[in-house]
């Protein structure tokens, strides 16, 4: 620490002499010694600093009457060197000002300098500050150490709070790290706190509230200050607030009491919510910046004298780019978000002025106008349930489960006319349990305090009974007719409760009667679903819990169904894991794909659930339905409907091994059409367009009637921004990859069209897309086939098992071959849409069965086909029909609206 330059060594003797002289001849004692140290440790010292002169006469030094140093003022003197370590023996020192030099080294402690008022160290090269630097500086008013970038990281010391006279603390760009200590209730005079350009983290301390701070500069912290700005509203002396370039969250607080505020810099944070009117009407406001946040609601309007930077719509989430009110429904949802502190996740997704435009957690009706479902389940939201939900009159399903919501459930929610499901389970709600109409499935378990103060009974009791009891006991006390009247009424109420409970039990029983659905075409029971349903409605841990429309199935149920994942139940193995056959207790067959977490990449639980929620809604008769999922530790299990005839690839390439007949041409065209329709549906999904990316015969599954369904869509592959999906995984299989996809990773629907073309070629030739057993020129099917097509040699390429004697068969094959060539065109834009392929194939299929109506319009394709729809139907019965979101597929709404017996009559979907 004491650092002596070589240059100074020659002075040692001289110094020693001088010190002895001063000590013996002067009354000032210590100060002389320290001052001579100061003079040697700094250079170049001013010319007046001669060793022969009294240090009280030196430039920049002030002494009191007893020749004690009271001030050291050496600003802008080009000084280098360091300060002597025992500077604090200048016990009368009031001012130390050495700003704008190049003084370096470790700062001396200033501990116990009880008279010290000012310390100005800005713009130097100090390297460290001792921990006891601020000890006992009871008169310190101003400290500044701004622009000392060479400082090793330090934290604002807690013991600064001893210096209760502090008026100004400035330490911008001084390498401070750590949090702001909560000591600001100790400085009644603190006006300036300037700590910009450091690496201070954490939240604004509570003790800022009620402080006298006027200048608050905390902008541009490297990692960023976080938390909310709420404390600002009680910092009533604020004049200049620089908080830009941090990571503050939450809403801008009410600043109506900060009447002196003229400069408010909040840009470059993560602020959300509406800009409060109190901010727009601040009387002294001159400058305000708000850009690069996630502020919501109407564009704020400031007075004419205010320079306001609000940012474009892209750098905030204002509903409109011009001032003016937002849509009423948008305002309602913002109020809802406000009750949970305007979470950033909502502000990022809830953009624009139309809540039905892909806002997360929101679903709308088929007209795309009215919100029918809000699903905030498991979002770690905290706050309260806004009564504004009651203004969403089309709301059918409201899931707020598994959050940290407090306070009561607003009574007004009972008036929602279309509500079918309200799930508030697993929160910290309290207060009265509202009574909802019979149609509403109301889940409120896991709220320890809920209903306690009303009924005094155990939490989670029947809403009806608990509430009736509570009300009546209250009114009993209010009756003035005396004890007898009270008893009579009490007995009456008791009887009413008993009757009510019995009625509920009766209803429940009635609902639980096994349901069977007649399949009119086959004239037999399609499936008994009571098994599924009892599991789903009964034990929450067993099955069901409808999260965003998906079904959680417990690992126990799956273990039972697959005989504990026994080897003999293995249906096949894919790149992602093993697929098992399973049978539920009621005999329904399922396929369980068991994959480990690695498959999902870094996808979190939430993301996985969100994805599943979407996929369970993606339903089409030519897509293998995802029935539910299960998470067990790191593994994820997906439950699909079972497809008894396995994959197209088995029937096309391995029919000898499986001892089955080769597929006829009719079957092949029909399979091609099914696949085409499934993929067309995926491509045309309204809310989130899906691109399969891995279409191939092993992902095409067959039912007992040899009708096909596409499997393996969406999961791991669906991204909102499919064009840049390369980041997640290069999906696809060699032989089926479109050239532009293989080369650049750019994904469009034309990638699927290409793969579909390859599948068509496989159907025609019975050959695999890539066959290493063949010579190079033949091994790549597309190249070989297209060459055959050009040389009009297609007949040679046709699968030998196909019977081409019938003239129209050959004609049909040629048409499909032509389509296959078209689909595999080199440039994506040259390839047709899936819809075109469906039209071409549709004509060919019709030609085979001119008398039959397109059986595709029917529903009863096979027993197993009914399972997903039945699940839906059952849930609809249960009042949880939010699972089907009309906007996904019109056919779904027609399923819902028709009784089970009519289910098979709806029209063709995906058109
Ligand atoms: N729903 C189902 N019904 C009947 N069998 C199925 C079902 N799903 C998958 N299988 C069988 O399990 C096998 C493996 O399927 P999986 O989807 O895991 O792999 P893949 O499609 O062959 O390859 P990849 O994982 O690369 O897509 C299939 O080949 C098929 O035989
Ligand atoms: C400050 O004073 C206290 C009490 O007199 C003493 O214990 C401490 O050592 C002093 N600190 C310094 C750095 O002189
Ligand atoms: C002191 O700090 C300034 C500003 O960072 C820098 O330009 C200068 O080189 C430093 N001087 C020394 C001697 O380190
Ligand atoms: C800021 O501080 C945090 C720890 O508080 C540290 O992890 C981070 O690396 C620092 N950032 C910089 C740029 O120094
Ligand atoms: C503003 O001050 C008044 C009076 O002290 C107080 O009642 C009110 O709650 C304060 N407003 C805010 C937003 O803090
Ligand atoms: C307001 O901002 C402008 C430019 O951004 C600046 O020149 C002006 O000094 C600021 N006024 C106040 C009062 O801060």
TrEMBL record:
Subcellular location: Membrane
Residues that coordinate or bind ATP: 593
Start and end residues of each stretch annotated as Disordered: 453-475, 514-542, 892-911
Species this protein is from: Helianthus annuus
Transmembrane segments: 482-503
Polar residues bias locations: 531-542
Membership in a protein family: Belongs to the protein kinase superfamily. Ser/Thr protein kinase family.
Name of the protein described by the UniProt record: non-specific serine/threonine protein kinase
């Amino acid at each position: 620490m004491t650092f002596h330059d070589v240059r100074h060594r020659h002075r040692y003797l001289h110094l020693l002499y001088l010190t002895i002289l001063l000590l013996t001849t002067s009354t000032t004692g210590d100060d002389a010694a320290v001052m001579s140290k100061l003079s040697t440790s700094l250079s170049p010292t001013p010319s007046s600093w001669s060793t022969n002169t009294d240090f009280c006469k030196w430039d920049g030094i002030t002494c009191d009457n007893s020749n004690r140093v009271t001030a050291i003022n050496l600003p802008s003197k080009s000084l280098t060197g360091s300060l002597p370590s025992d500077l604090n023996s200048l016990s009368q020192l009031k001012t130390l000002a050495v700003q704008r030099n190049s003084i370096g080294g470790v700062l001396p402690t200033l501990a116990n300098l009880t008279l010290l008022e000012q310390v100005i160290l800005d713009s130097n090269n100090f390297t460290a500050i001792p921990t006891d630097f601020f000890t006992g500086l009871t008169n310190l008013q101003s400290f500044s150490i701004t622009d000392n970038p060479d400082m090793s990281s330090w934290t604002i010391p807690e013991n600064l709070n001893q210096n209760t006279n502090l008026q100004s603390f400035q330490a911008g760009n001084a390498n401070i790290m750590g949090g702001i200590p909560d000591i600001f209730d100790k400085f009644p005079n603190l006006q300036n706190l300037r700590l910009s350009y450091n690496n201070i983290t954490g939240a604004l301390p509570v003790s800022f509230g009620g402080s006298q701070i006027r200048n608050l500069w905390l902008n541009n912290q490297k990692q960023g200050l976080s938390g909310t700005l709420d404390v600002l509203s009680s910092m009533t002396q604020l004049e200049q607030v620089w908080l830009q370039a941090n990571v503050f969250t939450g809403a801008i607080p009410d600043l109506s009491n900060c009447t002196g505020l003229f400069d408010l810099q909040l840009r470059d944070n993560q602020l959300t919510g509406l800009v409060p009117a109190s901010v727009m009407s601040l009387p002294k406001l001159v400058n305000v910046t708000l850009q690069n946040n996630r502020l919501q609601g109407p564009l704020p309007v400031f007075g004419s004298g205010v320079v306001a930077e609000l940012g474009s719509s892209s750098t905030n989430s204002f509903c409109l780019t011009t001032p003016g009110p937002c849509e009423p429904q948008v305002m309602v949802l913002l109020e809802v978000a406000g009750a949970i502190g305007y979470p950033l996740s909502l502000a990022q997704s809830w953009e624009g002025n139309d809540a039905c435009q892909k806002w997360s957690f929101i679903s709308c009706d088929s007209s795309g106008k009215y919100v029918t479902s809000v699903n905030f389940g498991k979002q770690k939201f905290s706050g309260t349930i806004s009564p504004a939900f009651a203004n969403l009159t089309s709301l059918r399903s409201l899931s707020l489960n598994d959050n940290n919501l407090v306070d009561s459930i607003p009574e007004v929610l009972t008036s929602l006319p279309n509500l079918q499901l309200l799930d508030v389970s697993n929160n910290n709600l309290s207060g009265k349990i509202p009574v909802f109409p019979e149609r509403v499935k109301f889940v409120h378990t896991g709220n320890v305090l809920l209903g306690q103060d009303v009924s005094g009974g155990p939490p989670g009791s029947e809403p009806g009974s608990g509430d009736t009891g509570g009300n009546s006991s209250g009114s009993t006390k209010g009756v003035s007719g005396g004890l007898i009247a009270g008893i009579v009424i009490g007995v009456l109420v008791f009887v009413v409760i008993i009757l009510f409970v019995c009625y509920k039990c009766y209803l429940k029983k009635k609902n639980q009667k096994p349901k069977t659905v007649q399949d009119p075409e086959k004239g037999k029971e399609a499936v008994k679903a009571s098994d599924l349903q009892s599991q789903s409605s009964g034990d929450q841990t067993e099955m069901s819990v409808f999260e965003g429309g998906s079904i959680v199935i417990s690992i126990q149920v799956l273990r039972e169904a697959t005989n504990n994942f026994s080897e003999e139940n293995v249906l096949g193995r894919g790149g992602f894991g093993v697929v098992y056959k399973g049978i539920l207790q009621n005999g329904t067959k399922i396929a369980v794909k068991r994959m480990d977490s690695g498959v999902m990449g870094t996808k979190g639980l939430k993301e996985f659930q969100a994805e599943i929620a979407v996929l369970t809604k993606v339903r089409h008769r030519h897509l293998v339905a995802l029935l539910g999922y299960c998470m067990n530790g790191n593994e994820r299990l997906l439950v699909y409907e079972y497809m008894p005839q396995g994959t197209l690839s088995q029937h096309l390439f391995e029919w000898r091994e499986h001892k089955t007949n080769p597929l006829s041409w009719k079957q092949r065209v029909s399979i091609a059409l099914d696949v085409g329709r499934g993929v067309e549906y995926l491509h045309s999904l309204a809310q989130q367009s899906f691109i399969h990316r891995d279409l191939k015969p092993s992902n095409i599954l067959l039912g007992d009637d040899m009708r096909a369904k596409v499997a393996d869509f969406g999961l791991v592959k669906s991204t909102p921004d499919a064009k840049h999906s390369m980041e997640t995984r290069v999906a696809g299989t060699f032989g089926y990859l479109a050239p532009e996809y293989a080369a650049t990773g750019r994904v469009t629907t034309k990638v699927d069209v290409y793969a579909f073309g390859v599948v068509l070629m496989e159907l025609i030739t019975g050959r695999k897309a890539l066959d290493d057993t063949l010579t190079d020129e033949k091994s790549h099917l597309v190249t070989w086939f297209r060459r055959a097509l050009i040389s009009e040699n297609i007949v040679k390429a046709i699968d030998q098992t196909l019977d081409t004697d019938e003239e129209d068969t050959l004609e049909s094959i040629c048409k499909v071959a032509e389509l296959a060539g078209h689909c595999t065109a080199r440039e994506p834009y040259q390839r047709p849409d899936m819809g075109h392929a469906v039209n071409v194939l549709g004509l060919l299929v019709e030609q085979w069965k001119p008398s039959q109506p397109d059986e595709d319009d029917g529903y009863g394709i096979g027993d197993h086909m009914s399972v997903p729809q039945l699940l839906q139907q059952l849930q609809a019965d249960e009042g949880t029909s939010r699972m089907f979101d009309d906007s996904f597929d019109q056919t779904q709404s027609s399923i819902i609206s028709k009784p089970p017996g009519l289910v098979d009559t709806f029209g063709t979907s995906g058109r």
